[in-house]
Request: fold
Amino acid sequence: MTKTQLIENIKSKGSYLCVGLDTDLEKIPVHLLSSHNKAFMFNKAIIDATLDHCIGYKINTAFYEAMGSYGWDVMKQTVEYIPETHFKIADAKRGDIGNTSSKYAKAFFEILDFDAITVAPYMGEDSIRPFLEYENKWTIVLGLTSNKGADDFEMQKTGGEYLFEKVIKTVSKWGSDKNTMFVAGATRPDQLSEIRKIIPNHFLLVPGVGFQGGSLAELSKHGLNNDIGLIVNVSRAIIYAGSEENFASEAGVIARQYHEEMKRLIY
Amino acid sequence: MTKTQLIENIKSKGSYLCVGLDTDLEKIPVHLLSSHNKAFMFNKAIIDATLDHCIGYKINTAFYEAMGSYGWDVMKQTVEYIPETHFKIADAKRGDIGNTSSKYAKAFFEILDFDAITVAPYMGEDSIRPFLEYENKWTIVLGLTSNKGADDFEMQKTGGEYLFEKVIKTVSKWGSDKNTMFVAGATRPDQLSEIRKIIPNHFLLVPGVGFQGGSLAELSKHGLNNDIGLIVNVSRAIIYAGSEENFASEAGVIARQYHEEMKRLIY
Reply:
């Protein structure tokens, strides 16, 4: 998906919501457990119920890997089920030496037809370049994450700046705002303004709203740009809104609430 | 596997060689391509031919993910095929917020019965803790990697030290030398002495020998400790030593050469 298409989808819908499919067999409604293809049945129902309110889906690969090879089949089915109008993110946090990152890029951009993958920056340029080589695909690099552990290294000073600032400054030069985004957690909204000074035009993928406690209004105040420029992910607060047979419509209700709030924030 | 067992295996054999199964369907011998289960047939032959010369195998998950769900079946079959005497590393470079890292730990320590997994440190403590909670399992954290990109962030100064030194100092306190190792590349052997000053007792997983050009004698001079304390990985130089029907015995020849050199270095 191109940047122009992504912006058009967001602006026409008035939503910058991404639904995170952290699908956990220990948490899905009991009545689905007897299904042959329970994880996909869960995803399908959530997608059907939330499609009108979000502009993308984020698949957290850990949850699928915990199901073994079945999980990879579910990822494939899910990516194929999501319509082309919606942005598909593999939240995989990959990154390795060049020949290995090339294989990860193949796995997520070719074998699975994701639009984007999240990548960890620690190993530097040759670990990220292979992802950037794909046309109309996106590399979403960890900047400042939403968890407490971000203090340990990301928020350490290197030279006169935080490590995450150095990462964003450095990595943003390897690609462009048409193929690179950064993860910036909603739990530190004041830092979003600092990040916007470094990369005014890049999209940010913002986790940490919902279960992790980040405020949509706060992060939007600091993070929105003229293109909207934000993809805000909500996982657990939407997909586990209900645990009974009506779980999907409950998920739809919450997704609609985020959508309505987003419309108020951008119009 | 406990640290005592690992040391015993290494000392009794006189080898600290790990064979990296970077199994690539574009590189395995042509005569295997007609096999129904070609990737596993390749791994099985390599394992049979190298078992006497190494103390472990490292499975690089990227190469298996590039095969889709079949790759996950091959990983499972391969881990089950490797005898209990040998240390089994998932080279996965994972790491995410706590609830997600827990799922990765489940995937690699429970669904697949690996002894160890490589983990990226960027996201800090809560991204690493879930791996450390497993008894007799190992978390191998990226310290200083073997690639050129290590200059971009790992070799940047934070306070008075390099980022990789800060990572090693900090992370080594979260676990102990009985459940934590660090990746330290063979391509910067002088830095191994510095790392040994910080963690004299931890095992180091050392990539970068063979195709990447690191010297076994050099890295051993700087990295060995009283327990040996090194696991040196060689992937391409062993598994693709031959490309004909005798590829496995060619792999065995190269593995034997490393084994012989290691015996000379430690006895």
DSSP finds eleven helices and ten strands in chain B. Chain B has one domain: 3-266. The CA atoms of residues 94 and 119 of chain B lie 5 Å apart.
